[in-house]
Design brief:
This protein has 115 residues and is mainly β. It has no helices and eleven strands. The strands form two sheets. Strands 2, 4, 5, 6, 9, 10 and 11 form a seven-stranded mixed β-sheet that branches. A hairpin with a 6-residue loop joins strand 4 and strand 5. It is globular, with a radius of gyration of 13 Å. It starts with a strand and ends with a strand. 30% of the residues are buried.
Length: 115
């Protein structure tokens, strides 16, 4: 079993920056990758970024060049640095940790980019 606790959401003006954190606990050795998803009102949950245990990263086209996913192995924590934020980035952001048995999710962090 894995528990994920997110922090760092908030309200920011367009062009601003935020950094989300996701701390994993429990059976962390079973996690083979980490990722960030987001869900805006009335829309499906969509992939934002992923990072493998080997450090390979992937980004959605909509955030490429603006967002950076990284990890701190000593703290079992994954980060999402969001720069040049746009109103269309407004969503609830969820941390995801897939294992061989199931996908685990954080509680969600609200990110609001006001115009």
């Amino acid at each position: 079993q894995v528990q994920l606790v997110e922090s760092g959401g908030g309200l920011v003006q367009p062009g601003g920056s935020l950094r989300l954190s996701c701390a994993a606990s429990g059976s962390v050795f079973s996690i083979y990758a980490m990722g960030w998803y987001r869900q805006a009102p009335g829309k499906q949950r969509e992939l934002v970024a992923t990072i493998s245990n080997g450090g390979t990263t992937n980004y959605a086209d909509s955030v490429k060049g603006r967002f950076t996913i990284s990890r701190d192995n000593a703290k079992n924590t994954v980060y999402l640095l969001m720069n040049s934020l746009k109103p269309e980035d407004t969503a609830v952001y969820y941390c995801n940790a897939p294992t061989g048995e199931d996908d685990y999710w954080g509680q969600g962090a609200q990110v609001t980019v006001s115009s």
